[in-house]
Write a structure and sequence with these properties.
Strand 16 and strand 17 (346-347) form a beta hairpin. The chain has 13 helices and 27 strands. The protein is 24% helix and 31% strand. The chain is an alpha+beta fold and 511 residues long.
């Protein structure tokens, strides 16, 4: 392909353009050769691993009565089918759809349950028949089959699944050993490194695409342990659950999600890194379920405002906003307001580091935790519990209080753009504040132009602490604020508790 230039009437300019054109054509020729060649080894990798990559075929029975589209989980393999099915049912001839089909949908017999098929991707990690895929690929399926590269179909059983990382482990029985691949070390990936994705986009069958590692440790707010590999290797519908390989032929990720307004690849795909996958799959393989470490705390980000108020430089760590009464942190002496900066010898640089590190730590292990409390470092030893047990306890503990509105006659004090009133039996009833909230000052109103409004504070929330000191009434709170201003503090950290008892630390500037 040549470059097109507009001739100039001036000889010097025309000569310069000619030289530039020649250089551009030479560059394009060189680039074309490089692009045609691509990175060495992709064909070798594809040939080496293709037989270990499988299609995951699922079947689900769905009730087709009525016109409402079923509620499906995000990324469900049946999403595309239902979208097309219900679109076709609507049109001339009634709500059933177009023509004769529409009339039948409106006046004819109710449709019977229908079997729906869908395809995803997966890969073999053990020649005896263990297959890894995404949990959303098999979610709600009545039947799961694994289709090998040679077309052989094997019925699969679900060994275990994990919704938090969207991973699942399947087992199939084969008359002969299956081709398996091994995991590589995703921690060694470099930005710009070439990777190969293999999967089943748009149900076309095994397809190979290549790209580079665009970013690491991406948080896309899909779960508590987000640390995705981002790649521009083409990943489309049906690639979910398929492997992402390095050029050594090792699996360094499981293709899970894409960002796309159209449903097709725009060069922004995400894979669960192999370090995360291996830890989860090993537990599913051994126990049929996950067994994650549990600290029993509620945490939030240490903002610059909070760091300044708590004398933490630089801003880092995870701020403990609340403690589970039955969790491991409480007997270890960890308290709300503590900032965790190190866990089991690993630095906690930001809030989201802590859940991942805790989850990867063995249940029952005695762990040293370093916290900053009132500007000083302290060491605590925690015997980790199991996250799944803690979640069960939390589910059983949920309880609702009866509403009993009552007009508040208490005095109200203005501070920080907040209307405040004391916590007593009447105000507790009015704002439905649970008994677990022992003391504090109730927020009854918020100045729309104040910093408090930007922090999403709301009437009914209770200020329990000011700068890590408990407050019992509005006068006590005002006294604390006045003292902080005298001390030259630019901001204050409040421990704010919801009516249900969920605590959050909020930093507000002192006007």
């Amino acid at each position: 392909m040549g470059a097109h230039f507009v001739p100039s009437s001036k000889p010097a300019v025309r000569a310069g353009l000619a030289l530039f054109a020649a250089a551009a054509i030479a560059w394009q020729a060189t680039a074309g050769v490089a692009q045609a060649r691509g990175p060495e080894g992709i064909a070798d990798v594809a040939e080496q691993v293709i037989d270990a990559v499988v299609n995951i075929s699922t079947k689900q029975s769905v009730d087709m009565s009525g016109n409402a589209m079923p509620q499906l989980p995000p990324g469900s393999p049946f999403e595309e089918f239902f979208e097309e099915f219900f679109k076709n049912r609507r049109g001339p001839g009634g709500p059933g759809g177009q023509g004769q089909q529409g009339q039948q949908g409106q006046n004819g017999p109710k449709p019977s349950p229908r079997r729906v098929n869908s395809l995803g991707s997966g890969f073999v990690i053990d020649s005896a028949g263990l297959v890894v895929t995404n949990n959303h690929v098999i979610a709600d399926a009545d039947e799961v089959n694994v289709i090998l590269n040679d077309g052989t179909t094997l019925k699969a059983e679900v060994v275990g699944r994990d919704t938090k990382t969207d991973l699942a482990l399947l087992r199939v029985k084969s008359d002969k050993p299956l081709k398996a691949v091994k995991f590589g070390d995703s921690d060694k990936l470099r930005l710009g490194e070439w990777v190969v994705a293999i999967g089943n986009p748009f149900s076309l069958g095994g397809t190979v695409t290549a790209g580079i590692v665009s970013a690491r440790n991406r948080d896309i707010n899909s779960g508590p342990y987000d640390n995705y590999i981002q790649t521009d290797a083409a990943i489309n519908r049906g690639n979910s659950g398929g492997p992402l390989f390095n050029l050594n032929g090792d699996v360094i990720g499981v293709n899970t999600a894409i960002i796309s307004p159209s449903g097709g690849s725009i060069g922004i795909g995400f894979a669960v890194p192999s370090k995360t996958v291996v830890a989860v799959i090993d537990q599913l393989r051994e126990f049929g379920e996950t067994r994650r470490g549990w600290l029993g705390v509620r945490i939030q980000q240490v903002t610059d405002e909070i760091a300044e108020s708590l004398s933490i430089k630089p801003a880092r760590g995870a701020l403990i906003a609340g403690i589970d009464e039955k969790g491991p942190a409480k007997p270890a002496g960890i308290e709300p307001g503590d900032v965790v900066i190190k866990f089991d010898g690993k630095d906690i640089k930001e809030m989201r580091d802590l859940p991942k590190i805790v989850a990867e730590t063995p249940v029952g292990k005695d762990v040293e935790v370093v916290v900053i409390r009132k500007g000083q470092e302290e060491k605590k030893t925690v015997k980790l519990g199991r996250l799944e047990d803690g979640e069960k306890q939390a589910a059983l503990a949920a309880k609702k209080d009866e509403a009993a509105p009552a007009e508040d006659k208490s005095s109200v004090k203005k501070a920080l753009g907040l209307d405040l009133t004391n916590l007593n039996a009447d105000t507790r009833k009015k704002y439905k504040i649970k008994d677990k909230v022992k003391t504090g000052v109730i927020i009854t109103g918020i100045d729309a132009n104040s910093p408090a409004a930007e922090k999403r504070l709301a009437p009914g929330m209770v200020i329990a602490e000011v700068q890590q000191q408990p407050v019992n009434n509005a006068a006590d709170l005002q006294k604390r604020l006045d003292q902080l201003k005298k001390d030259g503090k630019k901001s204050v950290v409040l421990l704010v508790v919801s009516p249900d008892g969920d605590p959050t630390f909020v930093a507000l500037g002192l006007q």
